[in-house]
């Protein structure tokens, strides 16, 4: 059975802090799948993760580039937005399979490449909830 955990987030600064807490518990070879409606905060969460490791750098959405890579202190980070892929196999051309082994991969719209996603991936759904967001994490031992 997969572990499930939920968190309520109010505001951008809380989402950024949550990202910083989360990435401190992740490492190379892990895949994080981010789902949620447009504007839910997927890129904001990733920005919090990356900036906590690399400082206040620009972390743009990879909507058009598909992949943004960052050299972290211990491993490479891949921020992917695969919304525009036509078919799951297009993920091979991006080099995702190799990245799944060696990098920390943060993937927005993972349903587009579902057959390629490792079984042990962490899934985070971000849903609008009143003034804030509800994050539901599945497949992770738990965040402390």
Quick description:
The chain is α/β, with parallel strands linked by helices. The protein has helices spanning 12-23, 42-54, 90-94, 96-102; strands at 4-9, 31-36, 67-71, 76-81, 104-108, 122-129, 132-138. The protein has four helices and seven strands.
Task: Provide an overview of this structure.
With 144 residues, this protein is an alpha/beta fold. It is 26% helix and 30% strand. The chain is built from 4 helices and 7 strands. A hairpin with a 2-residue loop joins β6 and β7. The longest helix has 13 residues, at 42-54.
Characteristics:
single chain; 144 residues; alpha/beta; seven-stranded mixed beta sheet; 7 strands; globular
Number of strands: 7
Counting DSSP H or I runs of 4 or more residues, the number of helices is 4
Strand content: 25-35%
Provide the low-confidence segments as ranges.
none
Strand order of the largest sheet: 1-7-6-2-5-4-3
Largest sheet: 7 strands, mixed
The sequence of SSEs as H and E is EHEHEEHHEEE
Gross geometry: globular
What integer is the average pLDDT?
92
| Rg for CA atoms | 14 Å
Distance between the termini: 20 Å
Q: Given the helix and strand composition, which structural class is it?
A: alpha/beta
* Helix percentage: 25-40%
């Amino acid at each position: 059975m997969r572990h499930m955990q939920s968190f309520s987030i109010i505001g951008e600064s809380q989402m950024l802090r949550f990202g910083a807490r989360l990435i401190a518990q992740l490492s190379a070879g892990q895949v994080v799948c981010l789902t949620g409606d447009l504007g839910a905060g997927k890129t904001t969460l990733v920005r919090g993760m990356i900036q906590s490791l690399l400082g206040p750098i620009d972390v743009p959405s990879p909507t058009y580039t598909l992949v943004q890579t960052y050299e972290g202190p211990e491993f490479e980070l891949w921020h992917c937005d695969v919304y525009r892929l036509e078919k799951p196999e297009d993920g091979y051309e991006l080099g995702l399979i190799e990245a799944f082994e060696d990098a920390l991969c943060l993937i927005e719209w993972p349903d587009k490449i579902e057959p390629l996603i490792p079984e042990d991936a962490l899934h985070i759904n971000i849903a609008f909830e009143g003034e804030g967001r509800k994050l539901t994490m599945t497949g992770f031992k738990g965040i402390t």
